Batch of 2 targets.
Target 1
Amino acid sequence: MFKKAVIVDGGIAYEQDKETEYQDNIPGTSIKVILMPGHAHEHASLVIGTDKGMVVVAADVFWWTDNEKQTVDDPDTLIHKSDSFTQDKRALVKSRRKVLQIADWIIPGHGRMFRNPKKKE
């Protein structure tokens, strides 16, 4: 189905039978992969420069349940938002702070994309 898909996994990009190691950016792109442990130890996020600013596909660094109100107006509320699945709370807080330093826009693991409240004009 996705014959030309590139699969990215912890520093290696797989394209069919070819493996390519990489440091920061996914090979052939300007998409940066950064480790974001906390919710899970192996989590990573994608950082993409766009004409609207830096977009971070944050995975479960930030997420909301289906019935939960997505409140994104206050950086401190975001940083300390409860996560019942957290594997390392201290690492999660550090990852959330990192996302808020980098991103203009954030795409959470579950929920709608939102503008970083630290960067609102």
Note: The chain has one domain: 25-115.
Target 2
Amino acid sequence: MATTRGQIVAQLRLGPKTVDALAAAVGLTDNGVRAHLQVLERDGLVQVAGTRRRAGLGKPARLYEIVPDAEERFSRAYALLFRALIDSLALRKDRAALTKVLEDAGRQLGRQLARPAEGRRQQAIAAMGILTELGGLVELEGGRESDLIRGAGCPVSAATAAHPAVCRGVAALLAEAIGADVRECCVRDGRPRCQFEIRSRSSAR
């Protein structure tokens, strides 16, 4: 993160800091730092941690910090570990067994992220919300018999090219979470992209 905003984030990862301290660290004016902090707060990366008394008189200075779950966004360890785990499972299990393990894991996570909705369109919108929370960028394409969610990328692309069963796991997650039938039809060559077909369970029979 070589940008000025990245430098501010790096400073805050070391611990809470005031605007003055950040300005001195990155070589900006106080107002310049505040402008970057506003964007980082809006993006959910930074929050006010409290105040610190200034020397002498005057209002206490606000302390800013990285939000507790932001470290996960900066870490590459999750993707690397996930890929290594799937590689290891693939060496020990045949394709059908690996798919079952991933679908079971997807259903388990789907229960934690449950968003039951009535009607196929609302179910598709709920699925889009889940994929967005997981790091996807998706859009909805409606149809007569089904809705299609298309992704601009893939939040688990570290593993999907070598292990298509991962996409089945994500489909199982969505199906469990929204209470609909979900079929993966993801694009895995070139730039991986999520693609899931949503059908209400009554129309799928």
Note: The chain has two domains: 4-74, 77-204.
